[in-house]
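#onboarding

Welcome to the new folks! Below is a worked example of what a typical request in this channel looks like: someone posts a single protein sequence, and someone else replies with the predicted structure as tokens. Don't worry about understanding the tokens yet, we'll cover that in week two.

Example request:
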Amino acid sequence: LGNAKTRQYTAPFFVSVPGNVRAVAIPTASSGWVASVDTVAYYGPPPPNLVSLATSVSENDGSTTISLSAKPQTSVFCYAVVETIPFGLTPSDLMANGAQGGEWDPADSVIRWGPYLDDDSRTFSFEVSGPAGIYPFSDQVSFNGYSTTTTISLPVSMPVADTTPPALSITSVADGDSEISADLLVSGTASDSGRGNNGISLVTVDGLPANNDTASGAGTADWSADVQLHTGPNTIVVVATDTVGNSTNEAVTVTYNPPTFGATSIVSGGSGGTQSLQTQLSGLSQSKDTIILYESTDLQNWTEVMPQPLMTWNGSTVTISIPIIPTTTGTYFRVTVTQSP
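Example response:
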């Protein structure tokens, strides 16, 4: 230092006043006393904090977001930001200026942003999860080779768990309906809108996945399924499950009353000894049911009878009159009943 540039020092040594220290290494005589290249470093008190760092906290639906706003002065040519995360908390969604950024080091429990080789202002943010409470967060900013550390206590809230099941409705049939078709289309809607907005992961009808049984976020799943009914009462159970495991169920009981045959007889009448085969079907609705007659000679290949025979309605019973030739044998008839919505 000063005029003492030829003095030999032993490390460590202390500097009492700010100034530059220039040092060289001088080897032994056997190497010819050739000195190393000298190096210079400034020693003194650290400069004032040239990067201001403001910290804020916000909460939304039980989650906690911590934001850091760094504003360097123009004399800063490089800086970095380090956030120490208290034990028990886990960070996520590390952002820098609204984009993905930062590195989480779980070994040291710190998030690191930078270094940035400029003096641009930046905003950093991250979410934390863990037990609710007040935690000391440590902010450190390094600039031009110096660093400062600030500790601030911030509240952390636990995310609120979604325990609300989704909404579910069966719209195609109602409890207590009667059906005359064994093939029943069951449909409806399922949604998690306003109940966590986690979406629908599955809708089952009598334990089997329905068609179109998923929806994302607050969307609606317009599900449907074909159900085969058996004669008598049928209880149909529909279950809707959201993406976090909450479920709700609805059930309807419908009764399948297949059409029943009454008496079958041969009726004579008309000129030339014309005869008709008459049979009755009951449990039908004239406004909803379509009846089609088929004939076969081998009980395997069926052909629609054209034109269709006379059908006479009396309430829920229809009488079918099929013209026949008395000498004809080996002809079989069957009818199908189709129910319209």
